[in-house]
Each structure stands twice: as C-alpha cells, then as structure tokens.
Amino acid sequence: MKKRRRIKKGPVAIALLILLMIIFFILLGIYNLLLSPVSKNKDYIEFVVENGENYLSLVNKLKKERLIKSSLAYRIYVKTHKLNNLKTGTYHLQKSMSTKEIVKTLSGQTQNKQITFLEGVNIDKIVSIIADNTKYSKDDIYAVLNDETFINQAINDYWFLTDDIKNKEIYYALEGYLFPDTYEINESTSIKDIIIKMLDATEMRLDNFKTDIDNSTYSIHELMTLASMLELEENTFEKRKQVAGVFINRLKASYSLGSDVTAYYAARVDIEARDLTEEERDACNAYNTRCLSMRGKLPVGPICSPSLKSLEAALYPEINDYYFFLNDVNGELYLTKTNKEHEELKEELKRQNLWHVF
Fold first, then answer.
1. Which 3-state string (H, E, C) describes 327-343?
2. pTM of this prediction exceeds 0.90
C-alpha cells in the first residue's frame, strides 16, 4: 500500500493565501461601509411600501430618497438574508439609519411610534411623556437622567454640554438641553437612546449658531438658561427679543431679574397648576430670580426646553433702554424704564381690569 505524499505549502502558496485573506477583509470592510448610514441627519422621511412590492423592488426608491449608500450592497444583504416578510404601509425612516436598521424596520420587527415634546416642557414633563409612551417607569427614566457616568459621557460627546451642568444646585443636569420635537421610537429603543436622540436634535440646531455662540459675551449654558426663561415669559419671537433686552439690561445693572417663571420652577410647581404662595414666590435658591440675593444673576440653569426661536432671541436680543416689563390679562407686553413708571402702569391696568388677579 502506497503512502500518500503530504503536499508542502511553499512560500508562494502561503503568500497567495494571505493575499486572498487581505482581499476578503477589504471587501468585507467595503461591504459593511456601504451598509452604514448615509449621513447623521435625524430628520424623518416618509417612505411608503405599497401592495405587490418586495425588498428588491424597493431599491430604486430607497436610493432616490438617499436612504441607502449602495444598491448593490442592499441587494446582496437582502438576498443573503432570505427576507420575505416585508410589511406594506407608511414608515418614517432616517438617513442616519443603516441598511440593516431600515430592513429591520420594513420587516415589521420594530413597531415605530411617535412621541412629541412641546416647547417649554421641563424634565418632569418629559419623564411623564416617556413613561406614558414606553414600557419604562418614571424611576427608570430619572435613574438615567441622574446617572453621573452617563452625564459625563454626554459632556464628552456634545460640545454644548459643559461642566456647568454638574453644579450641585441644578435639579437636572440635562434640563433645557433636550430639544422639543417629535421623535420616532419603538419597543427596542432604550431610555439612553431616547435621550441621545433629543441631544442629537439639539446639536443639529445649535451647530448653525456655534460661531455666534462662541463669540457671545455669555456662555452656552447662560444662553440656554436665558432662552428657557424667554420661552415661558413670552409667546412671540419679537416679544422674546424685547424681554431679552430687558433682562440683559437688568443683569448689567446688577438688578434681580424678578421673573415669576423662575420662582415656579424653583418651587417645583407647575405654572398651570396653581398660584404660588407668597413664601414660595420669595423663597431664595439658585433658581428664583425674585430673591434679592440673585441680583445680577441668571438662574443656575435652564428651567425648561426652549424652542430654537427663544435661543435666537437670547443670542440676538433687542438692544433697548428698558428695565421693566409686564403683561396684561390679554398677553399684551408693556416695557418701562423706571420702577415708578412700572408701578404706575400696573395701577392703570388694575383700574382697567386688565391686571392679573391671583
């Protein structure tokens, strides 16, 4: 019986094998790159899957909407994964989704839903909205928002978050920085992912103003704090710009800002729930600008999530020489230069039954 001769691998064969492995990993890297998101854009694109369509027939529509990088990579992925459970209907997709995430969404593996956060909501309301629309409890959500490791990572990841948000007198570090908008989530979206989506949305908006923010007399934290006050004080862009001018004049003159909306936040009372007691209105802490110890100071941090227009008003205030403002029962804004004029105006509004009665 003859012995089999063992074939020895020479240097050429080994080199060829190594070359083939290198080529394989390069092609695999290119393939994975082509399956990655088209961009970081978080805006939602409405995408309709109609009856009779399949994964392969969708390729041109996906490419036209710039939701995938490569038609070929998409086709390879679909064929190699033997997908056949495409769900018809309307989907909200993002360019920041990978091809794998898009296919998973279209297959119905994730049931998306939209949750909306209005301008002017604070962390407590945000927590309630998330809890009402997800499987997470309020305690679960607060635990993430108060997680020091998560906060430190967020400061590292986002240029607009600074160590100012770690001040011990601040109620919630991310108050004011979670952008009010409509977000798409599903049952697999974690609490951290929801918060990150909101921070990403803030970054996308603030990036357009970064140069002006960097050149401002005020820090980003101070601007966000001022913007949050303007959001709750007034309801139009022009009024907010005017009041921003008043607040800045008072800061420069070392007056207290005397803002009732900060007193409500300081007392942790919903402004729509009830009036504050006299004790609550005048209680001193790092938020309540009615307190004399807050002369020349902004609150320690934002008191709600401001809209982009409120931030613009804070960044580009109206330059004026007014130091006082008030609103009548109809929301009309009045500006005055002296405390005497302010008090006289208040008495006049009372005579006309235009003053708020508490």
1. ECCCCCEEEECCHHHHH
2. no
